[in-house]
Amino acid sequence: MEFDNISISSGSIASTEDLPIRWDLYAPISGTNREFPVILFVHGFKGFKDWGAFPDACEDLARSGFGVVSFNLSLNGIGDNKKEFDRLDLFARQTFTQDLNDIQSIITALQKGEIKDTHTHLNTDFIGIVGHSRGGHVAVTAAAEFEAIQCLVTWSAVANYLDFWTDAMKSDWETKGVTDIVNTRTNQVMPLKKIVFDDAVENQERVIALHRVKELRIPSLFIHARLDESVPISNSEKLHIHSAAKDKVLKLIAKAGHTFGISHPFEEDDFPKPFKDLMDETIGWFREHLR
């Protein structure tokens, strides 16, 4: 069932460090007492909730019968200007541990009714999660960590960030304590401190997706772009192989790069075919398994 009308509300909650976690809630308006399951949307590295077609994707998920919470991880580097990296001091220390803490804070706020919509009843006992790239990596670990998460979808997820970081980056961390990342979209030089690497190494059994996916027994869909220039298909193949879920599927999207044909800003009326295919697979999976 498709819903013609949705409500969009926004706000923020405090992270465990008392930093803002800014969120948007997309909710279908049904005019009944029906309860809708919730989907958490997790952006990737150098990403944010308002990147490209992400808001449009969240609207489509809401029209398909889900409450959708899209949020900026508290250390992602986006500050008061919601589409600009103006807090590179925070970006520099974005750890996977804090990402998990943020997702726990979002789930707690949902279950306490601190994130809500006056037009829609949300069933916060049935939560799904979808994440892109690094966000897919985080989504896997969150799905293993939090019992409320009952369904998983990843978009071109990284399997193991310990393998993803280059020798040059590791050398920088050892010698200088920081490595520089260039944002090719904005040409910003973005520092990444050694604490990010140390956190992943010291807590790898908790924060590395390839370890945690072995614990997953919830329905899990791993989607990857065939022509992904940033994260090789082998990442999703590994996650799929090592997942302990009975219901697990690997889907490859043809003629698509890492962002499935989407760039920022996104100003088109319609999704390009790869992104539409991605959304069809995602919506179909949640409709079948999150209820």
Report on this structure.
- With 291 residues, the chain is of the alpha/beta class.
- It has a single domain, classed as Alpha/Beta hydrolase fold, catalytic domain (Rossmann fold).
- 34% of the residues lie in helices and 25% in strands.
- The chain has 11 helices and 10 strands.
- The protein has helices at 54-63, 88-91, 96-111, 134-145, 161-164, 167-176, 194-202, 204-207, 209-212, 234-242, 273-289, and strands at 6-14, 20-28, 35-42, 67-71, 121-132, 149-155, 178-182, 189-193, 220-225, 248-253.
- The strands form 2 sheets. The chain has an 8-stranded mixed sheet, sandwiched between helices. The protein has a two-stranded antiparallel ribbon with strand order 7-8.
- Helix 3 (96-111) crosses helix 4.
- The longest helix has 17 residues, at 273-289.
- It is globular.
- It starts with 5 loop residues before the first strand and ends with a helix.
- The mean pLDDT is 96.
Structural domain count: 1
Report strand %: 15-25%
Total DSSP E strands:
10
CATH architecture descriptor name:
3-Layer(aba) Sandwich
Radius of gyration: 18 Å
Tell me the helix content. 25-40%
Q: What would you give as the CATH superfamily?
A: Alpha/Beta hydrolase fold, catalytic domain
The first-level CATH class name: Alpha Beta
Categorize the overall geometry: globular
What's the short story on this structure?
The protein has 291 residues and is an alpha/beta fold. It contains 11 helices and 10 strands.
